[in-house]
Amino acid sequence: MNEAILAGLLSSGTDAQSVTATVRRTERAEELRTRYPGLTVLAENEDSEANSKAVQGAGLVVLGVKPAGIADLCRRISDDLARETVVVSVAAAITVKTMEAALPEGQPLVRSMPNTPLKVGRGAVGIAAGTHAGPEQLKLGEALFSGAGTVVVVPEDQLDAVSAVSGSGPAYVFYLAEAMAKAGAELGLEPELALTLAQETVAGAGAMLAQEGADPTALRKAVSSPNGTTERAIAAFDEAGLPAVIAAGMRAAADRAAELSRELG
């Protein structure tokens, strides 16, 4: 995820020489330096103060560690942040309140909920302003992600819903492709052929949905000829309660995000 954000930022015109990244291992640092010439990469196994050094003088700091480590990271870098530095978190479930308690008083903070299609330039990202982040700070947060996807600004209390729709959403689509491939094999196709057909169908349908003005309902109806095979399949899905199953899964995802916020806060 972090490299996808980095790649999008650089592809949008940001000079690699203006960016410093930190990683845990020397091997990963060397890999990134090779892939992105001019990028400064500090490895924590070589320098335990890598994160603190990276944030010194930075206008924008992106926190990309796992949720359980975010508050500790905020505390460790707090003395090295400039007052005007905008801090952006990409960790799920960690609230603005939790992070602000670990950062210097008044530090501008933006909380985000990105998803993995950032890796292919088709990400969907929700961002929410912290207590001390105004329009200019939010613009910096938007610019961070806009090179690799669509960015929407929402109130923080809607980020769990964003997580349920787009944060976890790619996994729902992959799950659908898995199920389609398995069903195709059960219908007599060679498993590899069934998987290829499922992959290309899901990818192609996604490309159609990405077109300007696309409406999923209209697209579905355009494929569903009256009394045809597709209409019969959709009717079977409805009879099995698939819309309710999807809604239940998304509710479970949103509830788990709220639960993690309580556990980690």
Automatic annotation (TrEMBL):
Organism encoding this protein: Arthrobacter mangrovi
Catalytic activity: L-proline + NADP(+) = (S)-1-pyrroline-5-carboxylate + NADPH + 2 H(+); L-proline + NAD(+) = (S)-1-pyrroline-5-carboxylate + NADH + 2 H(+)
Alphabetical list of PROSITE patterns matching this protein: P5CR
Primary location: cytoplasm
Subcellular location, record wording: Cytoplasm
Family: Belongs to the pyrroline-5-carboxylate reductase family.
Keywords: Amino-acid biosynthesis, Cytoplasm, NADP, Oxidoreductase, Proline biosynthesis
Domain of life: Bacteria
Associated pathway: Amino-acid biosynthesis; L-proline biosynthesis; L-proline from L-glutamate 5-semialdehyde: step 1/1
Gene3D superfamilies membership: NAD(P)-binding Rossmann-like Domain, ProC C-terminal domain-like
Job description of the protein: Catalyzes the reduction of 1-pyrroline-5-carboxylate (PCA) to L-proline.
Residue stretches making up the Pyrroline-5-carboxylate reductase catalytic N-terminal domain: 1-92
Enzyme Commission (EC) number: 1.5.1.2
Protein name according to UniProt: Pyrroline-5-carboxylate reductase
Domain spans labelled Pyrroline-5-carboxylate reductase dimerisation: 156-260
One Pfam family in the UniProt entry: F420_oxidored
Presence of the UniProt keyword Transmembrane helix in the record: no
Species lineage: Bacteria, Bacillati, Actinomycetota, Actinomycetes, Micrococcales
